[in-house]
């Protein structure tokens, strides 16, 4: 898990790499319809949604995509834990790129405008309270660029 204080901090640390420049572009896009997933090929998908709509009972881990979350109009709460210490609730599916897991997790408050990046060795659960709008992106773990763009 890595947290950036704002979009400018993410740009300062990871900017200049196409993958992260496109991620920032997706996070900053204000013309997104809520609940509609937008994509850049198969390397990045992003949408705006309420945390209440993204909330799950179990922690979710991905192998092929990083979870990137940026609150838009308030703080968001997310549980994050290393996959290695969790119990499998629903095994990994290559079709959905998800495994559902159970176990203890660290609760994080992600302030409005900041960015959380959850790696493939971690699982996360977006909490419904506080109910706020976030931009959520799934960004390929592979390489530094988008091969199809």
Per-chain topology:
Layout: E1 2-4, H1 7-14, H2 18-28, E2 38-40, E3 44-50, H3 51-54, E4 59-61, E5 65-71, E6 76-82, E7 87-93, E8 98-102, E9 106-110, E10 115-118, E11 122-126, E12 133-140
Antiparallel strand pairs: 1-10, 2-3, 3-12, 4-8, 4-11, 5-10, 5-12, 6-9, 6-11, 7-8
Helix pairs in contact: 1-2
Key traits:
3 helices; globular; disordered C terminus; alpha+beta; 149 residues; six-stranded antiparallel β-sheet; single chain
Report helical residue fraction: 10-25%
List the helices and strands in order.
Answer: EHHEEHEEEEEEEEE
Gyration radius from CA atoms, angstroms: 14 Å
- Compute the separation of the termini in Å: 27 Å
Strand content: 35-45%
Number of strands: 12
Question: Which structural class is indicated by helix and strand composition?
Answer: alpha+beta
- What would the average pLDDT be, to the nearest integer? 92
Specify the number of helices.
Answer: 3
Strand order of the main beta sheet, please? 1-10-5-12-3-2
> Which runs of at least 5 residues are low in confidence (pLDDT < 50)?
145-149
Shape by Cα distribution: globular
Largest sheet: 6 strands, antiparallel
What does this structure look like?
This protein has helices at 7-14, 18-28, 51-54; strands at 2-4, 38-40, 44-50, 59-61, 65-71, 76-82, 87-93, 98-102, 106-110, 115-118, 122-126, 133-140. Strand 7 (87-93) and strand 8 form a beta hairpin. The model is unreliable at 145-149 (pLDDT under 50). A six-stranded antiparallel sheet has the order 1-10-5-12-3-2. A six-stranded antiparallel sheet has the order 7-8-4-11-6-9. The chain has three helices and twelve strands; from the N terminus they run E-H-H-E-E-H-E-E-E-E-E-E-E-E-E. It is an alpha+beta fold and 149 residues long. It is globular and about 35 Å long.
């Amino acid at each position: 898990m890595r947290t950036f204080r704002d979009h400018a901090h993410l740009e300062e640390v990871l900017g200049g790499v196409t993958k992260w420049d496109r991620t920032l572009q997706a996070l900053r896009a204000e013309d997104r319809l809520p609940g509609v997933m937008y994509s850049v090929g198969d390397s990045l998908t992003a949408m705006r949604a309420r945390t209440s709509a993204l909330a799950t009972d179990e922690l979710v881990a991905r192998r092929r995509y990083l979870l990137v979350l940026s609150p838009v109009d308030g703080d968001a709460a997310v549980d994050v834990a290393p996959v290695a210490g969790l119990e499998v609730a629903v095994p990994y599916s290559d079709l959905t790129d998800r495994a559902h897991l159970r176990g203890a997790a660290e609760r994080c408050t992600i302030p409005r405008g900041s960015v959380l990046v959850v790696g493939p060795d971690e699982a996360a659960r977006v909490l419904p309270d506080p109910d706020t709008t976030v931009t959520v992106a799934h960004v390929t773990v592979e390489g530094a660029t988008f091969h199809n763009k």
